[in-house]
Design a protein that fits this description.
elongated; mainly alpha
């Protein structure tokens, strides 16, 4: 089944963009911790800055053309932040490194984020939504259609 379906391509784009967004957010968090901010303050500041970056990257690259709701996006990130804080508190109690605790919390938040963005913020069933722009047929498929055509 190659090339992959539009959904699989979207999922792959989500993972690529998600890794970039996660690295961006984690780098902000690590920078804030390195300059001396308390880890929960660092997470809050990093999250606020990363939300704008994430909206642009998801809406333009992953869910291109899908109708979105900025309010739902902000609410999804509020939920994402709460998930991140809870998991950060859990990992901080178990893991001695605030850097590792932040990374582990981010991984949990990413999984939750995909489900919420896909199903609620950039819902594919929204009017006018599309996952991928249409692609022209390959020259091979055109040749096969012509070869298989009947003149009767």
């Amino acid at each position: 089944m190659w090339p992959p379906s539009a959904t699989v391509r979207q999922l792959l784009r989500f993972f690529k963009v998600g890794m970039i967004n996660t690295l961006f957010g984690y780098a902000l968090y690590a920078l804030m911790v390195a300059i001396g901010l308390q880890l929960f303050v660092a997470q809050a500041v990093a999250t606020i800055i990363a939300v704008a970056f994430n909206y642009v990257s998801y809406s333009r690259y992953v869910f291109n053309g899908a109708r979105s709701s900025k309010v739902r996006f902000l609410l999804s990130y509020a939920l994402n932040y709460l998930v991140g804080v809870v998991t950060l508190a859990m990992w901080a109690a178990i893991v001695p490194s605030p850097y590792l605790a932040g990374l582990l919390a981010a991984l949990v938040a990413v999984a939750v984020n995909f489900v919420v963005l896909r199903r609620w913020v950039f819902a594919p069933h929204a009017a006018g939504a599309r996952i991928d722009p249409p692609r022209p047929p390959s020259s091979r498929s055109v040749r096969e259609a012509i070869d298989g055509a009947s003149c009767e």
